[in-house]
Amino acid sequence: MSKPFDVIVIGAGPGGYIAAIRAAQLGFKVACVDAWSTAAGTPAPGGTCTNVGCIPSKALLQSSEYFDHANHHFAEHGISTGGVAMDVSKMLARKDLVVKQNNDGILYLFKKNKVTFFHGRASFVAAKDGEYEIGVSSPSTSAGRTDVVDTLTAKHVVIATGSNARALAGAAFDEVNILSNDGALRVGAVPKKLGVIGSGVIGLEMGSVWRRLGADVTILEGLPTFLGAVDETIAKEAKKAFDKQGLKIELGVKIGEVKSPSTGSGRTGKGVSVAYTNAKGEAQTLDVDKLIVSIGRVPNTDGLNAAAVGLALDERGAIVVNGDCQTNLPNVWAVGDVVRGPMLAHKAEEEGVAVAERIAGQHGHVNFNTIPWVIYTSPEIAWVGRTEQQLKTDGVAYKAGSFPFLANGRARALGDTTGMVKMLADATTDEILGVHIVGPSASELIAEAVVAMEFRASSEDIARICHAHPSLSEATKEAALAVDKRALNF
Ligand code: FAD
Ligand code: NAI
Question: How many H helices and E strands in the chain?
């Protein structure tokens, strides 16, 4: 007997669980199916973000930052700590507790909003009479349909199945020596030497965690430029700070053979050896205890049985959608990492809300031009809108203003004056086109810039708004003043 719903959401990551809640708020009878399980086999909704992404990585970044502060910064405040030690297992247990609180929070929200949750793997069975039939099999089934325990039907299906880490050819993740984001969050003891392939967001965040705890970290990056998507001034400033911290980043490398006990290279025992050529074309070898591979992620449609209903995928395996997240099938929608666009939790959430509202006949909307990015390193890096190099490429006439945290009273009091706020505005209309921050609390400061851009504010608008003193946000106001060459404190 099939169970009828109005909307079935596949995946309970930030895209899926938020879509399910919003659809329920709008009066639909909603089912959400998610396969993620705890080690004990119980449901763990929240997807990559909650289980092996945003939340646990930020928990470890916080713990390791406290450790770093205690070791290197407390003394300047007159605090003597004696020897500071890190209990890695306690740090990991705290991280696991934070994850569990988030898993439980989502289950609570499903109950509160009357979303029916199914712990299992969902796959398309058929489309008939304007309805889709979805089979739910046990959570550990990867091939779908072999052990269907529930059959659900609905007119609308929202696919939010997320993404998986991309492996390096010939070096599959074994999560012991060669780690994806999952293994990188579970390393039981600080490795003496840690290698990271890819100096993107995960490489920098996870590299920072283990460096702060004492690992000798080397990041190997294929591209010749550091953080190519980031505004050049900001990327340069961040690189300077990372160099000073001892995070070794080699750009322009070409990775060769990776030898570890799991790669069939004949290597036994522990550790990983990475052969590569450096930017000068010289052959090099990096020997490390653990290797994190963070070279991007691939959309996940495993076990969905997309072919059963003719769901179109692109050449990357992502579900093809239009600007409104509609797939090629009527009333089948897809959101988040499994579709085009940045792989960010808040982008997935925005799309989830918009889709639920469109199903209800409303005009859900996502403004892709004002999606903020944050890299939670120290200093933090955050931006919204276009970079200076993009404006040049696009031939847009612009004005730029920046303000260093070195000249900000609150940053001095904090003892963290690295970085700056940089604002870019249209040369004619003064509309803000981009805001780029590297420095303390950049993740929080960027929100003002997002609001400003969403309301199509000018740099003068920000310059005329009263900002609390002393606060880091004064740097944003000063950067806005600097656009008009009238910064007051620099
Ligand atoms: P996911 O979160 O991947 O969720 C998909 C869910 O669908 C999973 O639970 C999966 O088990 C389930 N599923 C898949 N197939 C099926 C099926 N057939 N049946 C049932 N269930 C299925 N983003 C940020 O914005 N900020 C951050 O700080 C940040 N940090 C990150 C750190 C790391 C280490 C990583 C890896 C990612 C990070 N991200 C961050 C990215 C963020 O995690 C993703 O963009 C986000 O989780 C995408 O949400 P989603 O709902 O599309 O997919
Ligand atoms: P990424 O796309 O951020 O970085 C991958 C890096 O690896 C790039 O610099 C790329 O040039 C490099 N690379 C690719 N192939 C390579 C190769 N063969 N050899 C050497 N270098 C190579 O991807 P990452 O770090 O894996 O993260 C995936 C996604 O997860 C991010 O793009 C982001 O969307 C999301 N994420 C977001 C976070 C946040 O918002 N704070 C934190 C972590 C992840």
Answer: 13, 24
Confidence at 412, pLDDT banded by 50, 70, 90: very high
Active-site option among 119, 156, 467, 469? 469
Q: Are residues 263 and 189 in the same domain?
A: yes
CB-based contact 166:298 (threshold 8 Å): yes
**Angstrom distance (rounded) from CA 391 to CA 402:** 16
Residue 69 is a catalytic residue: no
Q: Which amino acid is at 475?
A: A
Q: pTM of the full predicted structure?
A: 0.97
459 within 8 A of 484, measured Cβ to Cβ: yes
Residue in 14, 6, 2, 11 with CA at minimum distance from that of residue 353: 14
* Residue of the CA atom closest to atom 36 of ligand 1: 53
The tally of domains found in the chain comes to: 3
- Statement to judge: residues 48 and 94 lie in one domain: yes
Residue 431 in any domain: the answer is yes
Structural domain of 265: 178-295
Each residue's pLDDT tens digit, 108-140: 999 999 999 999 999 999 999 999 999 999 888
Mutate-to-test residue for ligand 1 from 48, 335, 444, highest number of ligand atoms within 8 A of CB: 48
Residue 163 CB less than 6 A away from ligand 2 = no
Residues 189 and 286 in one domain: yes
Closest CA to 318 of 280, 308, 304: 304
pLDDT per position as a tens digit, 423-441? 999 999 999 999 999 999 9
Residue type, 350: E
Positive/negative CA dihedral, 99, 102, 107, 110? negative
> Which band of pLDDT confidence, cut at 50, 70 and 90, is reported for residue 262?
confident
DSSP 368-397: GGG--EEE-SSSEEEEEE--HHHHHHHT--
